[in-house]
Amino acid sequence: MTTLALILVLIAALLHATWNLFAKQAGGGLPFVWLVGGIICLLYLPVVAWWTGSHGSFLSASAVAWIFGSGVLKSGYSLVLQRSYRSGEFSVVYPVARGTGPLLATTAAIIFLGERPSLIALGGAAMIITGVFHIAGGSRLLRADRAHMHAGLRHGIACGMLIAGYTLWDRHGVAALAIAPILYDAGTSLTQFALLTPFALRRRGEVLAHWRDHRLQVLGMAILSPLAYLLVLSAMRFTPVSAIAPAREISILFGAWIGAKVLREGEPSRRLAAAGAMVVGIIAIALG
């Protein structure tokens, strides 16, 4: 992984953990996701207009179809993520989701895309996954008195599976199909917004309530979420998924700190120590 790619991914990781905090604070479902999507689409309008005017880039039918597929995957991810935060602690759901994703994405990239990460990079990925396990409670998750955390764990794993899916999908879109990251992310945002609009219109009261009570979280997530992923998409254009997917998980360190210091969740020392061990894994991936 190049220095530029690592810098892009680290900045994206910090932004990602921050907007997830906003999602946790809002505690919303579809109405919150729809509001965020609407703001993102509005913010993208001048950006896309400038881009197409400057570069003369237009999307082919195959590119539009691929973007639509990404939008479907991310719509499912966004809704499952909101459900996860309503059922579990931030410092459990976030690490599990972010840790499961790179494990599956890296494995699939090796099997289906023919990527061959070095042994150092694979060792780093293994350290990240081990750290995630301990952040989530380690072997104590199997005890009966930890049953209250199982729902959050299940949803976190479901999020991780969707993360793996759209990571590989998007890698093909920006690398193999050479779709400009700005047009790609704007298109997926528009797809998500369009897919959720019929359901949001049936829940106008909840939409208005979320805007009234959580507009700061809506605006914060609408700005940071696309910005973070644009950085990742840009890095994907010249870096293998098997390097980017695990390296993004430095956000787990930020997430563990947020859970401990901002949300005052339990077992902060153990979770922060496990997150710190994962940083070593990130360095190994960068060296690999």
Describe this structure in words.
α4 (90-112) packs antiparallel against α10 (251-262). The protein has 288 residues and is an all-alpha fold. 82% of the residues lie in helices and 0% in strands. It has helices at 3-26, 30-55, 61-87, 90-112, 119-135, 150-176, 181-201, 204-236, 241-247, 251-262, 268-287.
Please state roughly what percent of the residues sit in beta strands, choosing from under 5%, 5-15%, 15-25%, 25-35%, 35-45% or over 45%: under 5%
Total of helices = 11
Shape: globular
**How much is the average pLDDT?**
83
What is the rounded Rg? 18 Å
Spell out the helices and strands N to C. HHHHHHHHHHH
Oligomer: single chain
Largest sheet: none
- Span from first to last CA? 7 Å
Q: Which structural class do you get from the secondary structure elements?
A: mainly alpha
Helix content: over 70%
Unreliable runs: none
Number of strands: 0
Characteristic terms for this protein:
globular; mainly alpha; 0% strand; 288 residues
